[in-house]
Amino acid sequence: MSRSTEQPAEFFVDRSLGKSIVLGLRTVGLTVYSMADVYGERRAQLLTDEVWLRDAGQREWIVLTKDDAIRRRPAERDALTAAAVRAFCLTNSNLRGVQQTERFVANRHRILRQARKPGPYIYGVYEHSLKRLWP
Fold first, then answer.
1. What is the structure's pLDDT at 6?
2. Which residues are within 8 A (CB) of 27 and not within 5 positions of it... i.e. 6 or more apart?
């Protein structure tokens, strides 16, 4: 299945990001799913990264995370590749929730433009730019 140009982008937010990110992105009009939305609160906490990465990729959702290590772990890289995941990652782990939301909101047009290209890939999300991190 390939994404139709008519179909609006949908985002999946990893549990490494807080609920405030989901709400902040929805406030600017984006369609955003949290892990709890998709799997339920309890199951979301127990789910391995490989499972949700594959699910998000199969649904053609754009993944938002701050787990920069997923590009270094073989099982996660395999899942990213198998499902052609398009992921965007905050690389600064010291950002507070409001700052994380601001960074994604400020870069949303860049993310949407880049996400038109097929995955797999991970881009770092910086204050005013994106940078390819993997592959």
1. 56
2. none
